[in-house]
Amino acid sequence: MSKSQKLDDKQLLSKLAKDFHELVTNKEVLRTSVESFLNNVIDELTLGIIFDLHRKYKTNSYEIDMEEDDGDEDEAAEVDIFAQHDVKKTQDCVCPNCDRAVAATRFAPHLEACMGMGRNRFRNATRRVASSSSNSKERENSSFSGVPSDDEDDIDWNSGNKRGKKKKRNGNKKTKSGGTPKKSCDSRPTDSLNVEIEAEDDDLASLRDLLQDHSNSSSPADSVSSSHSNSSRKKEKSKNKKNKRDRSSPSSSISAE
Amino acid sequence: MAQDYDSKINLHLDINHGLDRVTELVQTRLIECGWRDQVRLACRKAITENEKHIPTVDELIAIVTPKARSMVPDSVKRELLHELESILINVDKFGYSKSF
Q: From which domain of life does this come (chain A) (predicted)?
């Protein structure tokens, strides 16, 4: 700060001090001013209470009916668990994906399934995505694009392998037609790469879907039943392919059958 | 005018970093004596009395503020006044804000 500024501040300070001193020494003035100050503080507190309560009432935190207990923070309109009135007044959310009204408590799992983030519902999601697009090649691409998001959730240290797998799978699928495996009879010596089993599941799922997409053009409901029958077959097929790259033992045993 | 004095005190206290302490003191005193709960209750009554029609904030303020002022117990008020006066006198005594 410059000198002049300092001087100004000092002057200001001294002025204020003088003013204050005058205020304090004059008893009557002091009393009235302190009283008004206190009133102000009380008013402020009151305002705070009013705002708080008003907001709570506006957002329906309290039950308006005076018969029930006051101060229930939750929506007290629904009766106790023990009284078991009606259906619970759960707020329904609209799923952005499928535009369905879903219960709030089930919203997260529903989204998981709907958008294909969960493991088990991955099939449904990719099926939906696949069915929405018309071209078969587009389907492949779309299902592939659906895969990375799930795979990325999985173990990261497999990401390099996965990319390699996908590229190879691409080549394989383009040569395949109608889903008949050319290497079903292969049985290779296997490594104990149990580490990659988890990643395999997603790859399996994606493969399954792709194969299904080729074979089935039906609605998801039908594909569920067919998927169960196909899944075992396709597990073998896909696992057989992976035998090439020296995968874990269980796959080889299945392929031998 | 009283209003001027009030803002003056606010100003002086603020400069001397005493405003927070003072407001905190007043708050704790009022909560201790149960004033806050009383005001809350009165507020709730005022809200729920209007059948199914929640009054606006302005209406609430107009209704509740005078009640709240009157609800402060006299003893508490006197005590607070005394304490405030003594604080101000102390500030004046020990020098007006060394760290401006």
A: Eukaryota
